[in-house]
């Protein structure tokens, strides 16, 4: 009797809850209309047969500019949940989601639907239910609705009237549900594999080579596996798709994911821990929408940073002499405009080429960052010889039309000289761009390639703006000093910063090459360039004794070669303050409970060296660090390091310098300014 009473009470309770839900639904249109995503629950068959199943669809219709979320919303969202009130004998499976889109907002990845979409769920009817039984379903749905500026948690009562019957499905209903089913990801019949390698996570998805893959993206449903906003590299190795991206968290075990193939198609799959094959032929990733605010801010920052770069010692002489070449020519407006446009084209194209090479190397799986060309001794050697040639030209040892000398250039020659001078200015400016363009160039890590390239072009445009202004604003040209003997003296003075740049590049080459034997041939190349350029100048002056200079120069090179090993080894033995950075070293340092200071530097980074000499290595700073027990870790990026490159990317940077301060017990580091002062560091140490 008690059991019968409990069953009766249970049925009465369910009936009352159903009536309450229907009342709320009946009086809820005003509430539902106030939501930014309108839900509606429909069934494929209003009369499901006992012992069979039917499909429910929860349609979601976002207002304009609003979006809903996939089951795993990404960095900043969450999917939908429903608290069901179902009759006894009715079982509702979890909702299945259609293939979502990836949307980056403010550097965060969102897995969203910006258009009407439908979630599908199977409803199983127990065979014991009698025909004609009321099976009305109701529940309270909760979801998150967002724009690019605001998010609002929303809820509504959803319900659909069902009655046990013969399972009839109308043609119109079947067609509508077939359309929704076509948008669901198809389950993959085999498991894939995944593995974590350091800071990277790699996936292998079994997929026949005959399957078309267009702009793929891997949506990982399982939490704490990947950094959602990190770039994904796709490649094909036989019948497997290899996906590589940045890891996040310490998740182990099976992983659920969805591979978007393009055109609204997708595959749902399980991935088990295992060995992932090597990457194969690269596959292009998706051209996702971009964060407009991030793009325009980064572009403006790149133009401003490029403008300031003109004051750097390796760029200012080039700009100054090109401006003075206009003064020599009498300020002809047409010549000025042609040279200014050519100079701008050279600077912009070179910046685009360097940026394009950076993006291409990243897409190929290389861990590289801005100014990557200076991490290779061959590039440094080429730049060293070029800087030496410019210095000798400025000192008057020989003449080249591109850098003045007083020659009357033809129109074509002027354009060519302007173009290559702009290209040179952009190339030599890259080592100085870190502190001025850290945030702007860091944005290229999260923007698609087509949106990242204009930011690199903005750097070249900013670099060319002063010369562009001189070329197109007559008032500025009229303010240029009149030609006179002072111009030759000024030209020689400009050799001083270029000569210092040459010495800095020579020192960098010493730092990059680990032994005297490795440095011997670059030294010979530089010496030969010096001798040949001097010989060329001698020919211009009509001096026939230049061959004697060449022979003397070669003898000098051979006599100095034996001392190279000792000098280099002495230079390489120097160690800066602090231990070498590595992820393990950082974990160990933070486990001590002491403050941790991490800085990333490179020998070719002028601002890095200025910060080290003017702040980090100062005696007062080191005493304050010792007193507070600060653990210092140094990441040397001179020759490139994939671990450091990934660490820079994790903090929104793709070049040095980067300074991180970990306070005791803090979960995240504080990113310090890129221009350091002793007071800033001692203040951090003193707490």
From TrEMBL:
Residues 296-509 form the Cytochrome C biogenesis protein transmembrane domain. GO terms for cellular component: membrane. Keywords: Cytochrome c-type biogenesis, Membrane, Signal, Transmembrane, Transmembrane helix. The chain crosses the membrane at residues 294-319, 340-360, 380-398, 419-443, 449-473, 493-513, 519-539, 546-564. The keyword Isomerase does not apply. It is a multi-pass membrane protein. GO terms for biological process: cell redox homeostasis; cytochrome complex assembly. Pfam families: DsbD_N, DsbD_TM, Thioredoxin_7. Gene3D superfamilies: Glutaredoxin. Residues 1-32 form the signal peptide. The keyword DNA-binding does not apply. InterPro entries: Cyt_c_assmbl_TM_dom, DsbD_gamma, DsbDN, Thioredoxin-like_sf. SUPFAM superfamilies: Thioredoxin-like (SSF52833). GO terms for molecular function: protein-disulfide reductase activity. Residues 41-156 form the Thiol:disulfide interchange protein DsbD N-terminal domain. It is found in: Membrane. PANTHER family: SUPPRESSION OF COPPER SENSITIVITY PROTEIN (PTHR32234:SF3), THIOL:DISULFIDE INTERCHANGE PROTEIN DSBD (PTHR32234). This is Thiol:disulfide interchange protein. It comes from uncultured Sphingopyxis sp.
């Amino acid at each position: 009797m008690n059991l019968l009473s409990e069953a009766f009470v249970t049925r009465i309770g369910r009936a009352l809850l159903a009536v309450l839900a229907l009342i709320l639904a009946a009086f809820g249109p005003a509430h539902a209309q106030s939501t930014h995503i309108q839900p509606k629950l429909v069934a494929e068959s209003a009369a499901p047969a006992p012992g069979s199943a039917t499909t429910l669809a929860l349609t979601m219709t976002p207002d304009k500019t609003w979006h809903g979320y996939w089951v795993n919303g990404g960095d900043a969202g969450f999917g939908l949940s429903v608290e069901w009130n179902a009759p006894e004998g009715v079982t509702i499976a979890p909702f299945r989601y259609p293939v979502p889109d990836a949307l980056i907002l403010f550097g965060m990845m969102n897995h969203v639907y910006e258009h009407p979409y439908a979630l599908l769920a199977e409803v199983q009817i127990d065979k014991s239910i009698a025909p004609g039984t009321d099976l009305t379903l109701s529940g309270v749905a909760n979801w998150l609705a967002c724009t690019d500026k605001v998010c609002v948690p929303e809820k509504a009562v959803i319900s659909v009237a069902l009655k046990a019957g013969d399972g009839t499905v109308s043609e119109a209903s079947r067609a509508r549900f077939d359309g929704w089913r076509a948008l669901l990801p198809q389950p993959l019949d085999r498991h894939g594999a995944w593995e974590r390698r350091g800071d990277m996570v790699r996936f292998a998805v079994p997929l026949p080579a005959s399957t078309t893959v267009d702009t793929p993206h891997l949506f990982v449903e399982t939490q704490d596996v990947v950094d959602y906003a990190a770039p994904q590299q796709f490649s094909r190795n036989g019948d497997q798709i290899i996906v590589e991206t940045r890891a996040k968290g310490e998740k182990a075990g099976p992983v659920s994911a969805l591979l978007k193939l393009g055109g609204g198609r997708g595959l749902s799959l399980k991935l088990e821990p295992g060995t992932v094959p090597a990457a194969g032929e690269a596959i292009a990733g998706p051209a996702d929408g971009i964060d407009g605010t991030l793009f325009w801010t980064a572009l403006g920052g790149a133009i401003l940073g490029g403008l300031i770069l003109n004051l750097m010692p390796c760029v200012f002489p080039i700009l100054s002499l090109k401006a003075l070449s206009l003064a020599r020519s009498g300020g002809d407006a047409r010549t000025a405009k042609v040279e200014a446009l050519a100079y701008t084209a050279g600077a912009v194209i070179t910046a685009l080429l360097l940026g394009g090479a950076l993006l291409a190397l990243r897409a190929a799986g290389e861990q590289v960052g801005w100014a990557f060309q200076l991490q290779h001794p061959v590039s440094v050697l080429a730049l060293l010889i070029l800087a030496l040639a410019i210095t000798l030209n400025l000192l008057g040892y020989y003449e080249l039309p591109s850098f003045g000398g007083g020659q009357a250039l033809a129109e074509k020659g002027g354009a060519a000289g302007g173009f290559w001078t702009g290209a040179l200015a952009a190339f030599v400016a890259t080592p100085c761009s870190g502190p001025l363009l850290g945030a702007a160039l860091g944005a290229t890590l999260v923007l698609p390639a087509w949106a990242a390239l204009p930011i690199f072009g903005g750097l070249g445009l900013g670099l060319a703006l002063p010369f562009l202004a001189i070329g197109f604003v007559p008032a500025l040209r009229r303010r240029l000093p009149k030609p006179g003997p002072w111009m030759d003296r000024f030209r020689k003075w400009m050799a001083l910063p270029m000569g210092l740049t040459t010495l800095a590049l020579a020192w960098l080459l010493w730092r990059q090459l680990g032994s005297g034997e490795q440095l011997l041939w670059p030294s010979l190349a530089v010496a030969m360039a010096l001798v040949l350029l001097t010989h060329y100048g001698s020919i211009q002056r009509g001096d026939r004794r230049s061959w004697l200079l060449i022979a003397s120069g070669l003898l000098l090179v051979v006599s100095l070669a034996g001392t190279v090993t000792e000098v280099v080894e002495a230079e390489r033995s120097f160690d800066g303050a602090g231990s070498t950075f590595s992820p393990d070293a950082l974990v160990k340092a933070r486990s001590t409970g002491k403050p941790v200071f991490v800085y990333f530097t490179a020998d070719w980074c002028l601002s890095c060296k200025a910060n080290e000499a003017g702040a980090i290595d100062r005696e007062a700073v080191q005493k304050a660090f010792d007193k507070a027990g600060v653990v210092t870790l140094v990441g040397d990026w001179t020759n490139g390091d994939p671990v450091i490159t990934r660490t820079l990317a994790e903090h929104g940077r793709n070049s040095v310098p980067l300074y991180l301060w970990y306070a005791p017990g803090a979960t995240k580091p504080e990113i310090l300014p890129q221009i350091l002062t002793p007071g800033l560091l001692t203040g951090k140490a003193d707490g």
